[in-house]
Amino acid sequence: MEARKAVVSYRFLIGVYVGIPICLALQAADLLFWGGGMRIPLPSEHHPTFWAHAAMGTPHIIASNVLLLTNVEYLRTYKRRVGYTLLWIALFFLMTGVVPYEVMFAIMGVLTIAHVFHQQMGIGKGVSRCAPEPYSWWTWTGIAMGALVYNVMYLASHVPHPVLVALYAACAALAVAFIGLTVVCHRTAVGAKGKGFLWANCAMAVVAAHFFFTGYWFLAALAPRIIHDTTAFAFYVVHDHNRHAEQPKNFVYRLARPLRLGTYWVAPAVAIALTLLLQSYGETGLRAVMLPVFGRLPDQPLALYAVAALTLMHYSTEAVTWKKGSPYRSFVPVTV
């Protein structure tokens, strides 16, 4: 029997933005009933729990790398990109030895926000079909605001107070400019769906800034993460179903097929299992393997380096693998 083809629908794409009112409702409940108990610290990147890994996007980053590395033809197609990426990951790690931690973290923060926002705004570009120039200004203004918010949240303790005040003012100015550019883009957005998706992306960025200004930093990080990661997993799951449901084409789906549970669960399950494995045994395993080779290892957790490498690979390869006309996209129909 032929497997039914899966699609990513507009209803789903817009539906993931329900994370915004959920986070706002949590803040309201906290202010009314819980006395500010949800002003919890941001997850530590140095000693993360599983939930900290989830909040930082590790499962979907792992799923992305599994998708690329377990499909030989994709590796052939993008081997040059993978090669370049491995070189600049090596350069990035070499820079950590000479460049201050705050600078390296800021670079990673900019890359993170650019990746998160570009995914949603890239989808939105196809849905809203706004005029290209204002949409580009709008996108990069949102990224600038988000990157500033992200880095201030994580690096505030390293910044002198007068500089911190100036950074807060810059965040506010960028938020005002971003909303103004949303109004400009609204004028050329096509149809109710296009306008709706435009304002949903505006809300994602502005609500994150709102949580930042009101001291709910965990919610500021969580709201865009829910939207980004859920959307990403939808693309991975639909891709894998359409590619592997009838005839598994890699060892992961060949191993899963005898269970007769379908395909939709495999990518999330593998990603969660590998995240738990990394959290529980990654540090011990990496040190056991690398100590005999290098003799001396850095003081920071090696699992942190592993996550950073996977993250940089994810950012670099996904900038091209999901472009229109790519082998990936041929298995992911999007209906709007």
How many β-strand runs? Answer: 2
| Mean pLDDT over the residues | 91
What can be said about the biggest beta sheet? 2 strands, parallel
**Separation of termini?**
28 Å
Count of structural domains:
1
Give, in order, the helices and strands: EHHHHHHHHHHHHHHE
Poorly predicted segments: none
SS summary, helix count: 14
Percent strand: under 5%
Structural class: mainly alpha
Strand numbers in spatial order across the main sheet? 1-2
Radius of gyration: 21 Å
Multimeric state: single chain
Q: Into which percent range does the helicity of residues fall?
A: over 70%
| Global outline | globular
SSE topology:
Layout: E1 8-9, H1 10-15, H2 19-34, H3 50-55, H4 58-69, H5 72-77, H6 79-95, H7 101-128, H8 132-155, H9 161-186, H10 191-213, H11 217-244, H12 251-256, H13 266-294, H14 302-321, E2 334-335
Parallel strand pairs: 1-2
Helix pairs in contact: 2-11, 4-11, 4-13, 4-14, 6-14, 7-8, 7-10, 7-11, 8-9, 8-10, 9-10, 10-11
Written description of the protein model:
The chain has helices spanning 10-15, 19-34, 50-55, 58-69, 72-77, 79-95, 101-128, 132-155, 161-186, 191-213, 217-244, 251-256, 266-294, 302-321; strands at 8-9, 334-335. By secondary structure, it is mostly helical. The protein is built from 14 helices and 2 strands. The protein has a two-stranded parallel ribbon. The longest helix is centred in the C-terminal third of the chain and has 29 residues, at 266-294. It has one domain (8-335). It is globular and about 50 Å long. The mean pLDDT is 91.
